[in-house]
Amino acid sequence: MTPNAASPSSGPAGPSRRSFLASTAVATAAVAGGMPLLAACGGSDSGSREGTTSGRAADKLLPAYVAGTLARPDLPSKNGSAAGYTGKVDLAALQTSVPHKLGTGAPFTIMSPFWGSPPKGDCAYYKALDAAAGTKVTWQNQDGNTYGQKLGAVLASSSIPDMVVVPGWELVGKIANAVTAKFMDLGPYLAGDKVKKYPNLAAIPSDAWRMGIFGGALRGIPMPSAAATFIVPYYRKDLFDKKGWSVPTSPDEFLSWAKDATSAKAKVYACGDMSWTAFNIFGVRSSGPLGWTIGSDGKLTYRIEQPEYLEALEWSRKLFDAGVVHPDDKARSGDAGQRFTAGQILVFNNDTSAWYGKTAEQAKANPDFRIEGMDIFGPDGGHPTLYASQPATIWSLIRKGASKTTVENALAAADFAAAPYGTKERMLVDYGVEGTHYTVKGGVPVKTDQGNSEVINAWVMLAAPAPYFAHPDYPDVARKQVEWQQRMGAFMKKTSTYGMNIVEPNRYANLSSQFEQLEIDYVRGNKKLSDVQAAISTWKSSGGEKLRDWYKQLLDKNGSGN
Amino acid sequence: MSLNTQLVRSLRAPARPTWEEPPGKAGLTAKGGLLVLCCLGVLGPLWIVIVTSLSPKPVIDRVGGLVVIPQGITFVNYRELLSGGQVSRAITVSVGVTLAGTLFSMTVSVLAAYGLSRRDSLGHRFLLMAMMATMFFGAGLIPTYLLVQSLGLTDTYLSLILPSAVSVFNILVLRAFFMGISPELTESARIDGASDVRILLTIVLPLSRAVLAVISLFYAVGYWSAWFNASIYLTDQRMMPLQNVLIQLVQKNTEAPTGLQQAVRTGQLSALGLQMAVMVLALVPVAVASPFVQRHFKKGMLTGAVKG
Amino acid sequence: MSLTAGSRPDGTRPPAAVEEPTAAVTTAAAKERMPRRAGRAGKVPWRIRLRRDRALILMTLPVILLLLLFNYIPLLGNVVAFQDYDPYVSSNGVTAIFHSPWVGVQQFSRMLGDPLFWSAAKNTLVLFVLQLVLFFPVPVALALLVNSVVRPRVRAVAQAIMYLPHFFSWVLVVTVFQQIFGGAGIIAQTLENHGWGGFDLMTDASLFKYLVTAQAVWKDAGWGIIVFLAALAAVSTDLYEAAAMDGAGRWRRMWHVTLPALRPVIALLLVLRVGDALSVGFEQFLLQRDAVGAGASEVLDTYVWNMGIQNGDFSYAAAVGLVKGAIGVCLVLGANKFAHLLGEQGVYQK
Questions:
Q1: Which of A57-66, A261-270, B78-87, B263-272 has the lowest average pLDDT?
Q2: Of A152, A327, A506, the CB nearest to C184
Q3: Which of A16, A107, A138, A443 is deepest in the core (most CB within 10 A)?
C-alpha cells in the first residue's frame, strides 16, 4: 500500500514534486569532452536518427539485451507507455529470476535518497533481502529533500560510499561532471554478454542503459521510465458527477469551468497550480537537453524560444488571475494532494503514481472518492503535442577504486532489485517477508505495520525492470494508468536529443537556472511578461547562442535530424 | 473586562516600595491593556495551534484549515507522534545534545570571557578582534564539511556540538558582565595571592548567576533548535535530533515519518493536525524549563540586592 | 552599594548616577592597574605582562582553538572566490583548489553586473532599515513594560508567554501565518463570509517586507527582552528611590535611571546589529520565496545559498559572501566608532 510498493518504475516513491523534477528540471547526461562517444547515443529506435559508426562502436559499451521470459504483462507497452499487469498476483506461482545468490556476502555501503524515516540498519526487511541476494549492505539512507547538498558534499570528500544512487534532478552545476570523475566504468562487468551473469539487468531495455553512459563509459545502472508523459491532470470524478460538470476539453473551456466551480466562500477552488499541465497542453518541451530540438524549419531551438512557452505561461497566469487556484497553492504552502482529497481543489496535476496512491489512501476514509485522469487537450481543444521524457533519470553508480568483490556484490544487489513483476524477488523487494511485512487477504498482499515502517524506498532505488504498472489490490487503476499513457502517447514526439545522456559544458551550467523561479513568479503575477522576455534575450546573448552552436555540432556529429 | 480588573488588582501589588507613587488609573489601564494585548498576540495563535492539534480529522477537513473553536477533542495526533519510536528517540537525542553541548559551551565561553575581561591584559584586544571577525565571515558549506569530515566527526554527536560550540556574541555579553564586577574585589584577592582560576570560581562566578543563567539559556535554546548541522553531518537518519524529524514532518512536499504518513494517507490523520501537534511538542521542554531558568534570573537579582 | 552597582549585567559602564560612589570606593590596588594607554605604550615590558597574564591567555585558548579550527581554517576555502572552482576536479574538495583555474576578480565583476545581485542587495538594505526601525525598539519597550510590573507572578507569566514563539521553527511560523493570513486563511474566510473577498496577505509582494518584519517581531521580540531584563534587574532600587526623593516622577525616573542603565546594552546590541546589517534572515525568506516571487524576497543570504548550494556555483557564491563579510566588518568598525563618539563603549574599547 505504500506508494512504492506496486510501481517502482514510476520514479522514487517519494514526494511528487521531486519526481516531477526528474523530468522537468535539470537533465543530465554524459560525455564530458567525449564528443565522439555521444554519437553512440543516436538511438535507432525512433527511426529518425540513424546510428553512426561511432554509434555502433558505442553500442559495444552497452550490455546485451536479453528480454525477460517471466510473467508477461496483459497490457503490453504501446506508444511509449509503461506495461500493465491487471490480473491478480498468484502468490503461489511466483517465479524465480535469481536462482543462485550472486552476492558473496562481502560488506559494502550504499547511499541513497530516502523519503520518510528509515528503518534500523539491521531490520528484518534489510536482513531478509541481504539473505536472499547474498549481500551485506550497510545503508546510508539520506533525506531525499536535501539529498543534493549531501551528494555535493560527499562527492567533494575523499570518502565516497561504495554505491551511490544519483537522481537526475540533482545533477546541477558541476555535479554532472563529477559523476564521470568519481564513478567507475562498469563496462568490464556488464558490456555485451558479460551482463548475462545478471539476467534481470540484461532485461533492462537498451534505451535505458544508453542513459547510463557518462563521460564515454557505462557508469550508471538505470531505473528505466516510460517515455510517454507521466504528468496527469487529475480530477475528482465523484464531485464532477455530483455537480453535473463535464470534463473540459480546451483551455478556454477549462477556464470558464474553473470560474464556475470556484467558491471561495465554501473554500472550494477549481485547481492547484496547473503550470506543468499548461506546458503539456501548449506543447512546450521540458528543460535541460530535452528542451532542444530541430524544428520542421530546420532550426535548432530551446524550449524558452518556443512561442508556446509564453502562451503556456500566459494561460497559467490567467488561472491565477481569475482566482480559481487555491490561495495555498499560490503561496506554495502545504500539500496540494491533500487539498485534492479533502475536496478543497477539484483538479491538480501530479505524476502517474498519485492515481494509485490517492485511490488506495481514500478507499476507507472516503468510499465515494474517485480520481480520474483528464485527457490532455491541445491549445485549441484539438490534439496536443507531447514530448517524450527520457527513458531513465535515476541511476546507481559505483565509486572508482571499488574492489572487484565490491562491484560484483553491488551488481548482485542491483540485479535483485531489477527483478521483474511476478517473481519472488520482486515480491520480496516490494512487500518484504510474508507474515512479517505483509499478509495476504483475498489474494491481495496487504502490508503490516512493520511492513509499512521497514519496506520503504531503499532497495527499489538500485535498479528496476522495464516500466510497468501493477496494483494487485486495485488492478483497475493499473489499467487506467496504462490506457491513459497509451492515449497520450499517441500524440508523443521525440526531440532531437531524446535518449541521449548529455552533459552541457560547465560554463553553461547556470545559464538557464533562473527560469524555474521566473516561471513560478510570472504565473503568480510577481513578474511581468517583459521580465520573461528580457530573461530570454539575456539568455540568448549571455551564452544561449553559443550553447545552440554546441548542440548543433553535437547533433551534426550524431547524424540527428527529425 | 474581568480579566483586566483582575490584572489591575494584581498589578497593585504589596511589593510596591513606599517611595513609589501609586499608579494612576489611566496609566494602569493602559499598561495592563498593552500587556494583555501582547500576551494575546502570542496566546491567540497558540490557542488555534493547540485546538487544531487536538481536533479530529473530519473537523479540520470541514473547516479547511486551522480550527478556532474546538469541536471534539482527540489525542490521536500525539499518540501517533509519541508511539512511533522515532520521535521519542529524537527527543532523547535532542535532550542529550542540549545538555552536553550547553555544559561544554558554557565552560569554554566563561573561561574565554574571563580571560578577556581585564582591560590591560596582554593581547586581549587582538584576541577579541580575532573572535569578532568570525561573526561576519562565513566559511561556506563545502570547506566546513570537508574539515568536519577529515576530523572524523561526521556521524558522531560531536559534530552537532563542536562546530557551533562558540557564540562570540554570548562571550561578549559574559565579558561585559565580568568587566562590570567592581575591580577592587578581584584586585584585593589577587594581592592576597589568589590565582585567576580561583578568582573566577570564588568571586566572579557567584556574582554572575543571572548572566550565567541567561547565557546558558541562550546556548541551550541554540542546541535545542539547531537542525542544520545534523542534516549535513549525520548520515544515520536514526541519530537525528527532534528538530530534523519535525521539519521533515512539516516541510513542504515532504513525506512524514512513514508510519505517520501512512496514517495521513489512509485518512486517519490530518497532516495539518499533526503539524500543529509537532509545534506543541517542540514547546513542551521550554514550557517545563523556563520557570527554572526564570527562578535563576531572580536569584541573580537577589544576589546583587542582598549583598548591596 | 558598590557591589550592587558592580554586578550590573551590562557591566560596561555604570549609570551616571552611580558613577561617583563607584569611583569613591576604588581601591589602591585598582589604581595600581595601568591606565590603558600607558599599558599599551609598553611601560610594562611584555615579558612581565605575559607572565602576569599567562593564566588569562590560557583561559581563552579553548575558544581560540575552536574558532581557529571551525571558523578560520575553513575560511581559507574562500580563496575559491578568485577561481572557477570545481570541487570534483580532484580526489577531494581541498586538493581541487589546486587544480581549479584562477580567474582573478572575474567573479566580482560578474557580481557587479548582475541585476539579481543588486536586487538582493536592495531588498537586504530595505529590510535592515525596516527591522532597525520597527523591530529593534520592540524588545526594549517590552522589557520596560514587563519590568514595570511589580507583582512577580504576573511578571513571570507575561515573560514566559512572550518567549514562546521563539521556539517555533520558521517552517512552523510560516505555516501558521499562511493559515491565518493566507487567501484561504482564517481572516480571509471571516471577511469572505461578510462579503469582502480577496484578502490574501501572504502573496502580496508589495507588503512582503512588512509581513516578514511582523513575523520576526512575533517570533523573536519576546525572546529579545531577556538581555534587557537582566540589565534592568541589576539596577539598584536605591537609584530609583533617590530619584523619587528628588521629586522625579515615573517618566522622569525611566528617562534618567532606567534608560541610562540600558544604554550600554542597547549600544552593544545596536553595534552588533549594524555590523550584521546584511543578514536579515534566511529560512524565513527561503520558505516564502515562491509566494511573493524572488523579486521581493531575495536577500543576500538566500542569494548566496541559491547560487552556491542550489546551482553549485561555488566561486560566485564565495565572492558574494566575501563582499558581504567585508562590508559587515566595515559597518561594525564604523558603528563602534560612532558609539565611542557618543560616549558608549560599544563592543570593544578604543
A1: B263-272
A2: A327
A3: A16
> How do the pLDDT tens digits run along chain C, 350 residues long?
333 333 333 333 333 333 333 332 233 333 334 344 444 445 677 788 888 888 888 999 999 999 999 989 888 888 888 988 888 887 777 888 888 889 889 999 999 988 889 999 999 999 999 999 999 999 999 988 888 877 778 888 888 888 888 888 788 888 889 888 988 888 888 888 888 877 888 888 899 999 999 999 999 898 888 878 877 776 777 788 888 888 777 788 888 888 887 887 788 788 888 877 888 888 889 888 888 988 899 999 889 888 887 777 888 888 998 888 888 888 888 888 888 888 777 666 54
For chain A, the domain total comes to: 2
Q: Which residues of A236-264 are buried (b: 16+ CB within 10 A; e: fewer)?
A: bbbbbeeeeeebbeebeebbebbeebbeb
Q: What is the residue range of A325's domain? A: 231-387+497-558
Beta bridge partners of A111: A140, A164
Q: Which of C56, C181, C287, C304 would best serve as a mutation to test chain B binding (most B beta carbons within 10 A)?
A: C56
**Contact yes or no for C293/A330 (Cβ under 8 A):** no
* CATH architecture of the domain with residue range C105-341: Orthogonal Bundle (1.10)
Q: Which long-range contacts (CB under 8 A, 24 or more apart) does C204-207 make?
A: C204/C292, C205/A526, C205/C292, C205/C293, C205/C295, C205/C296, C206/C296
Global confidence as pTM: 0.81
- Asked if C152's CB is within 8 angstroms of B177's CB, the reply is no
* Contacts with B259 from chain A: Cβ below 8 Å: 117, 449, 452-453
Domain regions of chain C by residue span: 105-341
Cβ atoms of residues C178 and A333 within 8 Å: yes
Chain C residues with CB-CB distance to B132 below 8 A: 332, 347-348
The upper half-sphere exposure of residue A497, i.e. CA atoms within 13 Å in the direction of its Cβ, equals 29
Query: Same domain for A347 and A291?
Result: yes
On whether both A7 and A128 belong to a single domain, the answer is yes
Looking at the structure, do residues A366 and A403 belong to the same domain, yes or no?
A: no
How high is the pLDDT of residue C43?
Answer: 66
Residue A222: inside a domain: yes
Question: Do residues A274 and A339 both lie within one domain?
Answer: yes
Q: What is the DSSP string of A495-559?
A: -TTTT--B---GGGTTTTTHHHHHHHHHHTTSS-HHHHHHHHHHHIIIIIHHHHHHHHHHHHHHT
A72: in domain: no
Mapped onto helix, strand or coil, the DSSP state of residue A99 is coil
Give the residues across from A139 on adjacent strands: A110
Which CATH topology does B78-307 take? MetI-like fold (1.10.3720)
In a domain, A70, yes or no: no
Same domain for A547 and A463, yes or no, is no
**CATH number, domain containing residue A207:** 3.40.190.10
Nearest in space to B103 (alpha carbons), one of B173, B148, B161, B170: B161
Contact B147, C69 (CB under 8 A): yes
Q: At what angle do helices B25-53 and C208-233 cross, to 10 degrees?
A: 120
Say how many CB pairs under 8 Å bridge B and C: 370
Same-domain status, A111 and A7: yes
Out of A452, A468, A484, a domain closes at A468
Q: CB distance from B206 to chain C under 8 Å?
A: no
Going by C-alpha positions, the residue among B222, B250, B292, B252 that lies closest to residue B87 is B250
Do A303 and A224 fall within a single domain? no
- Nearest-Cα residue of chain B relative to residue C243: B19
Domain assignment present for residue A446? The answer is yes
Which residues in C lie closer than 8 A to residue B286 (C-beta atoms)?
Answer: 163-164, 167
Give the C-alpha separation, B195 to B197, whole Å: 5
In sequence order, the β-bridge partners of residue A470 are: A85
DSSP H/E element including A360: helix A353-365
Strands A136-143 and A107-114: parallel
Which phi and psi (to 5°) does residue B160 adopt?
Answer: -90, -15
